[in-house]
Design a protein that fits this description.
By secondary structure, the protein is an all-alpha fold. The protein contains nine helices and no strands. The chain is elongated, with a radius of gyration of 19 Å.
Amino acid sequence: MAFSETNIDVFRMVNDLGKEYTYLNPPFVFIAEYTVYLLALATIIYWFTRGRNNRMMVISAVLTFMIAEILGKLAGTFHSNYQPFVELTNVNQLIEKTVGNSFPSDHTILFFSFCMTFWLFKRGYGLLWMIAAILVGISRMWVGVHYPADVAVGALISIISAIAVYYVVPRISFIQKLLKLYEKGEGYILPSKTKSKDL
């Protein structure tokens, strides 16, 4: 019960900020809804820089997301709750969302899977990706579609998955061979005179 009350209290604290600081609602709606397109664009750019490290990073991020999503679905079988705007009154709901089990947050799983992987590979400025993921998690509460526990569990699953993948996948010879085979085929279709450097 205490956990549930804390979960609701933290959600109210974040969500109510949108009622007090209404000028921040558009930026948080954008973060909650549309940064996924920026993430997709960045992933494509990383891949087509044709740097080996960048491509291994993208492969690791995709595998991390797949693993984290499966673990998230398993977690959802042990606990479930509807979105806050369904279960609570006076929620500042800023976006439309299909009603269903919101535990854990798929959006958070996606962002933390990719952003944590980017940070592990890039370090330095890769920290900006983690900040972006945290903002996305906060935004999902701000717009009224997820509880803190939905976000926290989704982030935790993704972070653990990303660390495991980072230390295992790049060392798998089969993955390396597949990447080399792909790059060989790509070389015939899109020949490059100079080898691109990782961003």
